[in-house]
Amino acid sequence: MSTVKIIGPNASNMPWQERGENTPKWMPVWRYSENPIIGRNPAEGVARIFNSAVIPYEGAFIGVFRGEQVNGVPYIYLGRSADGIHWEFDKEKINFVDEEGKPFMPVYAYDPRLVKVEDTYYIMWCQDFYGASIGMAKTQDFKTFVRIENPFLPFNRNAVLFPRKVNGNFLMLSRPSDSGHTPFGDIFLSESPDMQFWGRHRHVMGKGREWWESLKIGGGAAPIETSEGWLLFYHGVSGTCNGFVYSIGGAILDIYRPSVVKYRCENFLLTPEEWYEERGFVPNVTFPCATVHDAQSGRIAIYYGAADSYVGLAFTRVEEVVAYIKEHSAVTEADTELGRR
Ligand code: BMA
What we know:
Elements: E1 30-31, E2 46-57, E3 60-69, E4 74-81, E5 88-89, E6 96-97, E7 109-117, E8 120-128, E9 132-139, E10 145-148, E11 156-161, E12 170-176, E13 187-192, E14 199-205, E15 216-219, E16 224-226, E17 229-240, E18 243-253, E19 261-264, H1 275-278, E20 286-294, E21 299-306, E22 310-317, H2 318-327, H3 333-336
The chain binds beta-D-mannopyranose.
C-alpha cells in the first residue's frame, strides 16, 4: 500500500471503530456498528435530524444539523458532543443575523456544511432565494452567526467550501439545479477573493457513466487535503422505477487546479443497505455532508444522512480509500479537463 498522507490538523479524539466482521475486506468504507447515531425525535419540536455537518472544536465536537421541525420545515440547529457520537442539540434553531446584528432568518434551511478557513467557521446550506439556492453565514464563537451574501444565483444546492484558500482565493463547489427534485446536475467550482464576489466558474465533473451515479451528483463533505490531491466524498444518484437512490462516491481533485479530476471511483463507496438507510422519510438515501479526520493516523469518519431520517457514521483510512479510488478510477475527458469552455 502507498503512504498517502492527510495534510491538516490532528484529531486524535475523533470517533473511530475498526472494520467489523460484517464488512468484507474488499469494501473501502465500513459503518459504525451503533448506527444510526441520531435517531428520531432527537430534540423538542424536531422530528428528524439528517444531512448534517460536524467539526472538531475546543477539544470536543460541534455541528450544524438539519432539523426537520414537526411542521415539516427544515432549519439548522447547533449540536455539541464530547465524542462526536452522542449529541446534544440547542432548543432553538440557529438565529442568523445580518451584518448590523439584526435578525435575518432564511425561510427554510437544509443540508448545511460547516468548514473552517483560517480563523472563521463558515456554514453553507440550501435556502429560498426566490427558488432553491445557497445561503451562507460565518461565526467565530458559535454564538453569533452573521449571514454573508448569497454566493450564487438560483437555482443551486450542495455548496461545499474548501478548508483553505488555493492560489489566494476561497474555493467552493456547488451543484446548479432546478427548484424541484432536479433530474440532472454536475459539480462546479467557483473562486472568491473575499467571500462576496464569486467567479472563474469551472466544471469539475458531471454525472457518472456507471448506473449508481447516472442521474446527477453533488458535493458532499468538504474536500480533504492529501498528498495525492483533494479527496472528495460526494453523492451520486441513480433514478430507478421506484425513485432516486443516493450513494456515496469518491474522487481526487488536483491540489492546485481542483477543477481537474485526477481519479474518480467508478464504484460507489457506500450505498443504502442497512434498515436506517433503506427505510425512512425518503428511502434509499446515504448523503455525506462532513468528515472528521486525523492527519497522524490517516483515520477518516464520514457523517452521512440516512433515508432523510437519521445520521450515520462510516469509517475508512486515507490510504485504503485512496488506493481503492485509484484502483477503480475511470475518468472522462470532461473530468480531467480544466472545465472552462
Ligand atoms: C435532495 C436533497 C437532500 C435529500 C435528498 C433525498 O434533493 O433535498 O436533502 O437528502 O434529496 O431526499
